[in-house]
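BUG: 3D viewer hangs when loading the predicted structure for this chain

Environment: internal workstation, default settings.
Expected: structure renders.
Actual: progress bar stalls at 90%.

Input used:
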Amino acid sequence: MEKIKVNGINLAYTRRGQGTPLVLIHGYPLDHSMWDEVVPLLDDRFDIILPDLRGFGESDSPETVYNISDMAADIAGLLEQLGIQQAVFAGHSMGGYVALAFARAYPACLRGLGLVSSQVLADPPDRKEGRYKSAADVAENGVGVVAEAMTTKLSTNPRVQNFVRAVIERQTRAGVIGALKAMAERVDSTDLLASLKVPLVLIHGESDMLIPFDRAREVKAAVPGAQLFALKNAGHMPMMEFPHETAEALKHLA
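Structure tokens produced before the viewer hung:
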């Protein structure tokens, strides 16, 4: 991976393909490698940029408090240094929150938006409290507790479970804690939907155990022009469980 200095941290990214710039943003608590099976299916029509969000993968894990908007600003800085003025964004789960924050802060730079296993709602109070408890647990016991708690919720596919567990276990405590707190404090993006002037694609597994399929259905109801791709038997990791279907859906953003 290559690295750039942006907003005081070293941000790692890789780039592949040609065509319309497409930023694929990974979810929590993973890194860019979760897109590995989809990238070869898209690189003939997209210039794909795959960052590791701050705190994950090969990017720096700052100990300071930061928010989802800071993560979006990192991506804006990356695109600026790459000379890319406009791009399509597709974000998975937490990556969707980052993509929405980018859409709010840099609308002129957004060419299309894909939300994969994500949502526009902020955390309700009980979920917010749960994230802070998880952060305290990680601080005391390490990221293994997250791997143990989340692996089977991310997917029921044993191959996918083995992959995500390994990815989670190599993340840093600081990065996982920082992301948990950032997600807990994120703003509700429902109001943003009405102002979107770009194509919107929703990709969601009907068997998602972490973010219910109803969240995608609600966004579709709010934005009738959005394209909703409901993946039967898919959980929270459709890009790994059904890579071809996920890639075909993302092509609608080209």
